[in-house]
Specification:
The chain has two domains: 125 residues, NAD(P)-binding Rossmann-like Domain (Rossmann fold, 3-Layer(aba) Sandwich), CATH 3.40.50.720; 164 residues, Dihydrodipicolinate Reductase, domain 2 (2-Layer Sandwich). It contains twelve helices and 14 strands. A seven-stranded parallel beta sheet has the order 3-2-1-4-5-7-6, sandwiched between helices. The protein has a seven-stranded mixed beta sheet with strand order 9-10-8-11-14-13-12.
């Protein structure tokens, strides 16, 4: 039994971690932190989990940082994780970080994207990008996993096999993504306030969303050369989900069979990536509440235009589900433990 702590437990990703870990037979949640809700009774701060968190210490980060636990999930704001991770790692505690603090291989790039000075640049050298479908064996060996952003997860999983196998051009790739309002976090924000979103669709984060360099980093590694994605996110009047529609140009003589072989090679044995059969296309409704990523593709042989569509739940496969997947790999549990729930429907 692994005793785990969740730092930043009352945000949306923190709630998802609690929900999934309560169904994990090898986990006991022993510490939960919240800067905003720590003065409330536990049952009031976590109303969906009444009666299920007895015995868990609840309080501010500073109070619980030195508590006794075997692994830590950091669902903290960017820059805060980098100031906390070192203390935990020095005690031998594995860290699964859901912020952007350790995702970038270049510290100057991180600092330019987020407009801050990195507080633990040395730790970044030992961090592993927490995308199991690409870095599974490295995640097994690391003590610091950097869970990808939600948009990068949807785009990278969709395009990685094609770039890895050299089937599409590196230039001219476009990722048109639609997301639900929960991606803006639990804190009040006018732009993500539901009455402001309902019955409308709007782009945001232009000309360059902060997830864009993360996509470019990982897809460039896949291609073995520089990739620069034109990424445009759109806010949709829904709570959960990301639908990524990616456009690229197939190289000369590449066929549908080549695409099929690339996806089969990459994801044929993956527990959480479902490459859909002909006739089906992904929908956010079909992955809601689950750790699945659904992918489909179409290739126009005349124009050479390839369209790849992927769907994830931004709070699960795009955040907390991926974090639990990394935790399982890092601690020796079966990779699917705590993640076997089917999508919610309708």
């Amino acid at each position: 039994m692994k005793r785990v702590a969740i730092f930043g437990a009352t945000g949306y990703t923190g709630f998802e971690l609690v929900r999934m870990l309560l169904s994990h037979p090898g986990v006991k949640i022993v510490a939960l932190t919240s800067e905003q809700y720590s003065d409330q009774p536990l049952a009031q701060a976590f109303p969906p989990f009444k009666g299920r968190l007895s015995g868990a210490a609840f309080g501010k980060l500073e109070k619980l940082l030195g508590a006794d636990f075997d692994a830590a999930f950091l669902a903290l704001p960017h820059t805060v994780s980098s100031s906390v991770a070192g203390s935990l790692l020095s005690r031998g505690v594995p860290v699964i970080d859901l912020s952007a603090d350790f995702r970038f291989r270049s510290i100057p790039l991180y600092e330019s994207v987020y407009g801050v000075t990195h507080k633990s640049p040395k730790l970044s050298e030992s961090a592993v990008y927490g995308l199991p479908e690409v870095y599974r064996e490295r995640i097994r060996k690391t003590r610091l996993a950097a869970v990808p952003g939600c948009f990068p997860t949807s785009v990278i999983l969709g395009l990685y096999p094609l770039l890895k196998e050299g089937l599409i051009d590196r230039k001219g790739i476009v990722a048109d993504c639609k997301t639900g309002v929960s991606g803006g976090g639990r804190g009040p924000s006018l732009g993500f306030h539901y009455p402001e979103v309902e019955e409308g669709v709007r782009p945001y984060g232009l000309p360059k969303h902060r997830h864009n360099p993360e996509m470019d980093q990982e897809l460039s590694l896949a291609a073995g050369d520089r990739v620069s994605v034109t990424f445009v996110p759109h806010l949709m009047p829904m709570v959960r989900g990301i639908l990524a529609t990616c456009y690229a140009t197939a190289k000369a003589k590449v066929t549908e069979n080549d695409f099929e072989a690339a996806y089969r090679k990459a994801y044929g044995k993956e527990p959480f990536v479902r490459v859909l059969p002909p006739g089906l296309l992904p929908s956010t409704k079909d992955v809601r509440g689950s750790n699945f990523c659904d992918i489909a593709w179409r290739l126009d042989g005349r124009s050479r235009r390839a369209v790849v569509v992927s769907a994830i739940d931004n709070l699960v496969k795009g955040a907390s589900g991926a974090a639990v997947q990394c935790f399982n790999l890092m601690t020796g549990f079966p990779e699917e433990e705590g993640l076997r729930a089917m999508p919610l429907y309708p």
